[in-house]
């Protein structure tokens, strides 16, 4: 695997019920690549949280997953409203989701914290009125 | 304990595509991100939520089954999705609290 494998998915901002489609597909792809179950679980959870965020807050976007020998990198890009206060958004329990979103079981204010928890590196580039790009990296276990 | 060993007079199966799964521990919760952050693989997940996202979450975190309490059931399309994703689903008349107690007893018998 010298060239990284790159997968791209459109995240449909209008379709709440199918949110998670990209993460489920990624999970399947990573399984086919024979990656460790723990890595697959962390990648798919982090990606699902990101996908849900893009649907709730940003009217969708694009998810890209790159796999090379060392890392899995997830890049989520949207043209949503941006995050005015990233530190606040990173606090567990802080959410701007509406009540109707909460009635679906989302909006617990755990999305971004979970993404951080399940990845080794996470970077948020955001500009109010322009959009947000979140880059998450999960290191693959290296042969000794 | 295997899924198939659950007492079906208390936990009624709605779909059992993967009955050989083991139940190791229980997690109860309705907020999906909370469940994703805290539940562990092979847990039985107790919830009253019944939309499609529950199936996606159950699949991503690899719980051994979802137990819907208070007689909550699934719409036909969600049930079909559960079959497709091979997620075991039960329903029970018990509250989430009482379901936890019942499971505790079964797991420790």
Could you explain the architecture of this structure?
The complex is a heterodimer of chains A (144) and B (109). With 144 residues, chain A is α+β, with helices and mostly antiparallel strands. Chain A has one domain: Heat Shock Protein 90 (2-Layer Sandwich), CATH 3.30.565.10. Helix content of chain A is 35%, strand content 28%. Chain A has helices spanning 21-32, 37-58, 86-89, 99-102, 111-118; strands spanning 5-12, 60-67, 71-78, 121-127, 131-139. Chain A has a five-stranded antiparallel beta sheet, covered by helices on one side. The model of chain A has no long low-confidence stretch (mean pLDDT 92). Chain B has 109 residues and is α/β, with parallel strands linked by helices. Chain B has one domain (3-108): Udp-n-acetylmuramoylalanyl-d-glutamate--2,6- Diaminopimelate Ligase, Chain: A, domain 1 (3-Layer(aba) Sandwich). Chain B contains four helices and five strands; from the N terminus they run ββαβαβαβα. In chain B, strands 1-5-4-3-2 form a five-stranded mixed beta sheet. The mean pLDDT of chain B is 95. Classes of the chains: A alpha+beta (144), B alpha/beta (109). The A-B interface holds A 16-20, 23-24, 27, 37, 41, 44-45, 48-49, 52, 104-111, 113-114, 117 and B 30-34, 36-37, 41, 49, 51-54, 56-57, 59-62, 85.
